[in-house]
Amino acid sequence: MSLPTLTAAILEFRDQRNWAQFHSLRNLIVSLNLEASELLELTQWKSDTEMAAIAGSASVQEALRDECADVLIYLLLIAENAGIDLEEAARAKLVKNAIKYPIARSYGSNRKYSDQTGLEHA
């Protein structure tokens, strides 16, 4: 399903319930962050090793899937509300990031672009 098709399905679901009245841009952004926090909560107090070990669990996979879906739904609603084409925005951001993070300086590094001065890929 494409992003526009998915967005249309989300809008139909919302409109059938008369929820658009609650979906101001501010409310949607708050809701996105609440859902992202629920996604983050799934990792609370767990090491990377513990997360890798439980990632195969059906209940954990379902929880991850549900929280990821909630984040995506709110992101699509925000983009629709703000008139943002997410596919184009993502492409444009990749171009900006390629400039900020050239391969020669960024390969294998987790440093932010502003901290990469003088780093060179060997």
Describe this entry's structure for a reader.
With 122 residues, the protein is mainly alpha-helical. It has two domains: 82 residues, Helix Hairpins, CATH 1.10.287; 31 residues, no CATH class. The chain is 67% helix and 0% strand. It has six helices and no strands. Helix 1 packs across helix 4 and helix 2 packs antiparallel against helix 4. The termini are far apart.
| Corresponding CATH architecture of the largest domain | Orthogonal Bundle
Q: What structural class do helix, strand and pairing data support?
A: mainly alpha
What oligomeric state do these chains adopt?
single chain
- Superfamily (CATH H level) name of the largest domain: MazG-like
At the third CATH level, what is the topology name of the largest domain? Helix Hairpins
The biggest beta sheet is recorded as: none
What's the tally of helices? 6
Any idea how many domains? 2
Rg: 19 Å
CATH class of the largest domain: Mainly Alpha
- Distance between the first and last residues' Cα: 42 Å
Range of helix content: 55-70%
Q: Give the overall average pLDDT.
A: 91
Element-by-element helix/strand order: HHHHHH
Low-confidence segments: none
Number of strands: 0
Shape: globular
Q: What is the strand content?
A: under 5%
Organism: Candidatus Accumulibacter vicinus
GO molecular function, one term: nucleoside triphosphate diphosphatase activity
Pfam families: MazG-like
InterPro entries: dCTP_Pyrophosphatase, DCTPP
Can you lay out the helices and strands and say which pair or pack?
Elements: H1 3-16, H2 25-41, H3 48-54, H4 58-82, H5 86-100, H6 103-106
Helix pairs in contact: 1-4, 2-4
